[in-house]
Write a structure and sequence with these properties.
This protein is an alpha/beta fold. About 45% of the residues lie in helices and about 15% in strands. The protein is built from 10 helices and 12 strands. A 6-stranded parallel beta sheet has the order 2-1-3-4-5-11, with helices on both faces. A 6-stranded mixed beta sheet has the order 7-6-8-9-10-12, sandwiched between helices. The protein is elongated, with a radius of gyration of 34 Å.
Length: about 325
Amino acid sequence: MYRKTKLLVGLSAAVAMVMSACAMPAQPPAQPPAAQAPAAPAAPEAKDVRILVSMKGPGGGNPFWAAVEKGAVEKGKELGVEVIVLAPPAESDVQAQIAQVEDQLAKGVSAIAIAPTDPAALRPVLEKAQAQGVKVLFIDTKGDLPGATFIGTNNELGAKLGVDYLCKNLPKGSKVAILQGIITQSTGKARADGAKAGLTECGMNIVAELSAEWDRAKATSVMEDILTRNPDLQGLFASNDNMALGAVEALKNAGVNDKVVVVGFDANPDAAAAILAGEMEATVAQNPYNMGALGVENALKLVKGESIPENIDTGTELVTKENADRYK
């Protein structure tokens, strides 16, 4: 009897052990360690960064572009980056600017700060630059790349500021003319639009709206034609100081410089001197030095992976005899 009882107890214990083992949850297979995410590439050092500053016109031919170049070069030295400043022979030479950008892409640049001679024509080469990882932003003239930062003047408001001077200093209905820049450029269109809107609003009689393509010599010729048709002209807004100074030459040659109120745009040193001499009455100051300096500074930020505002306004100021000394 004892042996049977012992045998039954042993069998019961064995059955309990099997059932207990079956009730235990299965252990999951060991998982391999999670793969580490690749580290973000380190930002390049300033000394390895090359920034192309592509201007619309040569610094030697226009004080405005000379100031842009100076700002870019000095900021580059301050930040320790290599800055290459290039410009086509003339502001209308679109193909030369495209070729310069192509050449620098082939040589390897990190970023481009550009004032496009023709935004639509420059778009393909700038899209190519972006596809290669090159950062692109615009200075002075808005380009045709969605989302790209623009650093410069609100040109429409600046032109309105200039023509407001004419409105305040000429009787309503006075005959006035507008010398336009290159209208296919956003700068040229904005200044022409702002000037026309302002003069129309205050009741001036706009007798001519003609382009002299930012050029001083062309402005002299165009102004001669305007005077031939309108010898009683009373006011002129020129979309840059080069054209304003060219127009002054035509007015002086015709002996009517003292009868026409001339307002320019840029506040370059020659225009400031002309205002102090009584040959021009006013101009609209931009800050071309800052356009160059901020262009380089923000291009470096983009290369380092930082975000920057889509629009950086460098501001405007009306320059007359009262403050022209500061711009000589």
